[in-house]
Structure formats: structure tokens, C-alpha cells
Amino acid sequence: MIWKERFTNLSTKMTLTLSIGSLLVATFSIYMVVKGARISNIYDHQSSSCQFPAIYNFGDSNSDTGAVSAAFGPLVAPHGMTYFHKPSGRYSDGRLIIDFFAEKLGFPYLSAYLDSIGTNFRHGANFAASGCTIQPADALTLNNTFDPLTLDVQLSQFEQFKQRSLDVYNEVTSSEIKDRLPRYEDYSRALYTFDIGQNDLHAGIIYMKEDQAKTYIPTMISEFASVVEKLYQGGARTFWIHNTGPIGCIPFFVKNYPPSPDNKDQIGCVKSYNGLAQEFNKQLKDKVSQLGTQLQEASFVYVDIYSVKYSLISEANKHGFTDPLGQCLGQDGDDNKPCANPSEYISWDGIHYTEAANKWIANNLQNGYASSPKVPLTEACQATSSSLQ
């Protein structure tokens, strides 16, 4: 979220993007072997699945797979220590929720749009950027604090990507190049995923009173809907939209903005901050329902990630985690020193989640039980507006 303080020793770390590119190229070779099909001996729902050819993702650090790293300088160790065994552009010790979604659909991990080294975009692209907000930065007095790659910028990047990739696809004869680019028909059949809004609330908590921050929510929702409508006008048809998580349970806020006794819930989270998130989620769900009625050729799935994350935090011990409001990285004040056992923690660095937590959350999202309508990820294209209640 507040990412600038994380970027240190940039000039000596730029070669990391080459490693990221190599990983993506390697995973692409696996993709070509299976010819884009899902791995049928692993996943359920194959007979009725939507067979998405690609994922286009928009969001913040919860799903950034390398945009900020490519734009402003690579992350440094110990990020990526658990799965990639080196920094991978992700604010975590390993994979993110979007990575597990890609695995579920049989894809290699999504390349960040801004990562030009060794990238393959046949299976989609990721426009999410750490620190970004729904609203333009100056709307929340975030100048020089949060990421300028806000949702409207991500939309602009997608539109440029779509036009330029189609131009190149039609102009070149090399099959090697074509195989790395989306086909025209892929855009209307792709899955469009969103996880954004947490930074808008984060900024509201820091820069203004909570009641004042709440007055900005309708504008946030309107901005979000405008992006979705423009994607629809461009041919997008299947949308998987996360609400925002329990920001009042993020260790950063619990520790740095500790609640008064009457503003603390039964597990120690800040009630008023979670209340702000719940109000955002209510308005978002109402808007998604409206969009489902207005854009009748589209399929919308509203995903209650708030409930899933809160369930994990409130029942951490039951699910094999410890210290649910603690963190692995920097717990002794040294931001470069991780704990010895990241898999036992929910929070990686006080704001972002560990790979173990992301995996648990992804498993409890992609089955559809936390969604409206209750359809799994693999069947999102079959969602109907009448069941978006």
C-alpha cells in the first residue's frame, strides 16, 4: 500500500526482472504443452466450465504481480522467499490469490503489463499496481504518497494493450510472436477480475475523519462502475469482482492506529475501520447488481472476500495460523528480517498476506460459496443478473 519506503537499493537489483521473465517463459512452455486447456485431472467442474482463454486483472497490491516492481524498481529479498525463492514483484513471501486463480484455470501466472522482459500475454495480462486507488490520486490528496497507476490509468493501459496487441497480431507472420499475443476473439471470452478499493479506504483513514471518508464512497463506486461499463462497451462480458477486506484487522492499523476499548471487536480489530469497509462493500454490491441489470449480455459475480478473510482471522488457530493480528516480516522492527515460519502467519508485512493465507483464501473463493450468485470461478460466465442478490 504505502510502497515508496519499500524501494531500496534499486540500482543494484534491476536484474531481478530478468529472473521474473525467465520464470514466465518457463511456465509458458508448460502452457503450450497443454495447449491452453485446464489440467483435467486436478480440477472439478470441467464439463460445465467456461473455458476462459485469458484473465485480465485490475487492482492493487493484493494482486500486483510485478507492475510497481517494473515501473519504479524491483522489490528486494525477503519478498518471494517461500515459493519463488527470490523477489517476484509480489508483496508477499510467495503466491497471491490471483496466482492461485491462474493455476485453477490452467494458466501460467499473469504477466504484469509493465513487465516487458520475457513476457507472454496469450493467457491475459495483469494491470494491478501496488498502492493504487479507484479514484485519481489527487482526489484523496494522495500526491506523492500512493501509486499514480489508478484504476482509470489501468483501464487506459488495457485499451492500449488491446489495440496494439491486435495490430501486431495482424501485421506479423511469425507464429512465435503470434503465440505470445491474445487473439481478437479472446477479449470477449476472457475473465475480467477486480480487487481494488482498500487503498481508497486506507487513505481516508489516514488523511481524514472516518465520517468524511464515508462521504467519498459513492464517488469511488461511480468511478469503478464507469471502468466496468467501458470494458463492457469494448466487448468484455464476464466479471469477477472482489469486495474489500476487513481493513480494521490489518496489523498496520491495529498497531499504528490502536483502537479505544469501545472500538475494538471480539478479536481485536478496529470496529469503525471495518465498518467503513462494510459500507463500501454494501454500495459496491448494490452497484454490481445494477450493472448486472443494465448490461444484460454480461455475467457478474460479486465475491465477498471480506467474510472469507475475517473468518480466517477470527478462526486462525483452527486453520493452522498463529498470532492473527501479528506479522511475519519486520516483527522485531527490522523490515528486512522475516520470521522463520511464514506459513504460520496470516499477515506477511503488516498489510499484505502470506502465501499460506492467500492459498486458504483463494480456495474458499474459487468454489463460489462466498459469491453472489454462488457459482465457482470456472463457471463465472454462467452467472445471471437475476441471481445477483
General description of the model:
InterPro entries: GDSL (IPR001087), SGNH_hydro_sf (IPR036514), SGNH_plant_lipase-like (IPR035669). This is SGNH hydrolase-type esterase domain-containing protein. GO terms for molecular function: hydrolase activity, acting on ester bonds. Keywords: Glycoprotein, Hydrolase, Membrane, Signal, Transmembrane, Transmembrane helix. Pfam families: Lipase_GDSL. With 389 residues, this protein is α/β, with parallel strands linked by helices. The chain has one domain: SGNH hydrolase (Rossmann fold, 3-Layer(aba) Sandwich), CATH 3.40.50. Helix content is 38%, strand content 6%. The protein is built from 13 helices and 6 strands. The protein has a 6-stranded mixed β-sheet, covered by helices on one side. Helix 3 packs across helix 13, helix 9 runs parallel beside helix 11 and helix 12 crosses helix 13. The longest helix has 24 residues. The radius of gyration is 20 Å and the shape is globular. The N terminus is likely disordered.
Descriptive tags:
single chain; 389 residues; alpha/beta; Rossmann fold; 6-stranded mixed sheet; 13 helices; 38% helix; 6% strand; disordered N terminus
Question: How would the blueprint of this fold be written?
Answer:
Elements: H1 16-34, E1 55-59, H2 67-72, H3 97-104, E2 124-126, H4 151-171, H5 175-178, H6 186-189, E3 191-195, H7 198-207, H8 210-215, H9 217-233, E4 238-242, H10 251-256, H11 271-294, E5 299-303, H12 305-314, H13 355-365, E6 371-372
Helix pairs in contact: 3-13, 9-11, 12-13
